[in-house]
Amino acid sequence: MSKHMPPAHPFDDDKLKEECGVFGVVGVADAANFVALGLHALQHRGQEAGGIVSHHPLEGFNSARRFGYVRDNFTSQSLMETLPGPLAIGHVRYSTAGSKGAAIRDVQPFFGEFAMGGAAIAHNGNITNAIALRRELIERGSIFQSSSDSECIIHLMARSLQRNIPERMEDALRRVEGAFSIVAMTRTKLIGVRDPLGVRPLVLGKIGDGWALSSETCALDIIGAELVREIEPGEMVVITADGGVDSVFPFRRQSPKFCIFEHVYFSRPDSIIGGRSVYETRRQIGVELARETPVEADLVCPVPDSGTPAAIGFAHESGIPYGMGIIRNQYMGRTFIEPTEQIRNMGVRLKLNVNRALIRGKRVVLVDDSVVRGTTSRKIKQMIIDAGAAEVHFRIASPPTAWPCFYGVDTPQREKLLAATMSEEEMREHLAVDSLKFISLDGLYRAAGEASGRNKSCPQYCDACFSGEYPVAPSDMIEKGFQLKAAE
């Protein structure tokens, strides 16, 4: 791993990794500064690396790509002065395709020079037919500079015969399968596109006389932009500083399949999705969880921070007191001493500590957002027992994660997912807890605002990580031998 990379948290390998975050601004002075702020607000979506491309009418395109956190790279005045102009886009990355611990050449935005001028592109999601596309493009003479699936889009644009860059992008994206929310730029235009299923998020904001595109609304808040609306599934917007927003729908209309795990974990709780507060949805997940899985206990504790809103909802609905039984160390961003084997063995204790005075003698309900491999859950359970808890009950604010995601989330191989190889009772025994219960898919859908639950014939969200029902066939993985769920 590069010395410039932020150190891994001791328990982060047991969480699904966020995909990426994209942000763009047009029509404001020093647009790159606004992009840096937006990327800072989207840091939870990718901590591996970040990049910004800007354009100035006299100085042309400029770019900066760095490993590590936005705050450590894009706050230097000397660096930001190299990114002038009223138009800029940016990207924060957690690698989901291509090599892990990747080279700087894999860091987005990607830039290409075309006959009609340059263009840069930042992509959140995953292209499920990237291997086939890459093979075809290389056979036809394309030379790839990175291991990222996103670079396929640039090469497809270069081969397109359309007249301008937005039309070339349309042409390219019609060849692409999978999930994509894209923020791109030319010399004068800011472009945003969502795939026809709208798997990944993208919103439009207004800032003064300018415009912004962002993965989440929380990044609009940080720059003082007003949320205008979400970019619709299958929509492309082309924005200019003086001409405003032009909208087209270049793809065949389909039933949307937004990623339901954005509600559970990925999005920041202060963001708005579909006109609904993410925090409120997570609190309501806790309410539904308490209704579905009652338990006799003395204390409801969140596993911080992602389990907090659901724990608040669970406590309120169940009548069991809420307490901060686990305290998170907020300053684990950088390891202050060399992580020796002895330090590594401390594991989760470096990040979380038990509030012993509150826990001792209590029957404790621990509320967490998910169980992936189960390694962290076992460690947290043992910490609670060591602190003197009488009983430990896990309540999970998502259904069992039994299938990998191929749409931009870094998921372990299926055989490493606890729920793929064990029943709920076997998982309970493996974690050695007094009880373990997950919210049902219907309960999750109700919490997300679908009063009648999940429409089994045409689910309202992409929930493949829970159901194994993939709305877009993962062509590359099937080619590698991945077995889809058998039809029921």
UniProtKB/TrEMBL annotation:
<feature type="binding site">
    <location>
        <position position="306"/>
    </location>
    <ligand>
        <name>Mg(2+)</name>
    </ligand>
</feature>
<comment type="function">
    <text>Catalyzes the formation of phosphoribosylamine from phosphoribosylpyrophosphate (PRPP) and glutamine.</text>
</comment>
<dbReference type="InterPro" id="IPR029057">
    <property type="entry name" value="PRTase-like"/>
</dbReference>
<comment type="pathway">
    <text>Purine metabolism; IMP biosynthesis via de novo pathway; N(1)-(5-phospho-D-ribosyl)glycinamide from 5-phospho-alpha-D-ribose 1-diphosphate: step 1/2.</text>
</comment>
<dbReference type="GO" id="GO:0051539">
    <property type="term" value="F:4 iron, 4 sulfur cluster binding"/>
</dbReference>
<feature type="binding site">
    <location>
        <position position="259"/>
    </location>
    <ligand>
        <name>[4Fe-4S] cluster</name>
    </ligand>
</feature>
<feature type="binding site">
    <location>
        <position position="368"/>
    </location>
    <ligand>
        <name>Mg(2+)</name>
    </ligand>
</feature>
<feature type="active site" description="Nucleophile">
    <location>
        <position position="20"/>
    </location>
</feature>
<dbReference type="InterPro" id="IPR000836">
    <property type="entry name" value="PRTase_dom"/>
</dbReference>
<dbReference type="InterPro" id="IPR017932">
    <property type="entry name" value="GATase_2_dom"/>
</dbReference>
<protein>
    <recommendedName>
        <fullName>Amidophosphoribosyltransferase</fullName>
        <ecNumber>2.4.2.14</ecNumber>
    </recommendedName>
</protein>
<keyword id="KW-0479">Metal-binding</keyword>
<keyword id="KW-0411">Iron-sulfur</keyword>
<feature type="domain" description="Glutamine amidotransferase type-2">
    <location>
        <begin position="20"/>
        <end position="242"/>
    </location>
</feature>
<dbReference type="GO" id="GO:0009113">
    <property type="term" value="P:purine nucleobase biosynthetic process"/>
</dbReference>
<keyword id="KW-0808">Transferase</keyword>
<dbReference type="InterPro" id="IPR029055">
    <property type="entry name" value="Ntn_hydrolases_N"/>
</dbReference>
<keyword id="KW-0460">Magnesium</keyword>
<keyword id="KW-0315">Glutamine amidotransferase</keyword>
<comment type="similarity">
    <text>In the C-terminal section; belongs to the purine/pyrimidine phosphoribosyltransferase family.</text>
</comment>
<dbReference type="InterPro" id="IPR005854">
    <property type="entry name" value="PurF"/>
</dbReference>
<dbReference type="GO" id="GO:0000287">
    <property type="term" value="F:magnesium ion binding"/>
</dbReference>
<feature type="binding site">
    <location>
        <position position="405"/>
    </location>
    <ligand>
        <name>[4Fe-4S] cluster</name>
    </ligand>
</feature>
<keyword id="KW-0328">Glycosyltransferase</keyword>
<keyword id="KW-0658">Purine biosynthesis</keyword>
<feature type="binding site">
    <location>
        <position position="369"/>
    </location>
    <ligand>
        <name>Mg(2+)</name>
    </ligand>
</feature>
<feature type="binding site">
    <location>
        <position position="465"/>
    </location>
    <ligand>
        <name>[4Fe-4S] cluster</name>
    </ligand>
</feature>
<dbReference type="Pfam" id="PF13537">
    <property type="entry name" value="GATase_7"/>
</dbReference>
<keyword id="KW-0004">4Fe-4S</keyword>
<dbReference type="GO" id="GO:0004044">
    <property type="term" value="F:amidophosphoribosyltransferase activity"/>
</dbReference>
<keyword id="KW-0408">Iron</keyword>
<feature type="binding site">
    <location>
        <position position="462"/>
    </location>
    <ligand>
        <name>[4Fe-4S] cluster</name>
    </ligand>
</feature>
<dbReference type="GO" id="GO:0006189">
    <property type="term" value="P:'de novo' IMP biosynthetic process"/>
</dbReference>
<dbReference type="InterPro" id="IPR035584">
    <property type="entry name" value="PurF_N"/>
</dbReference>
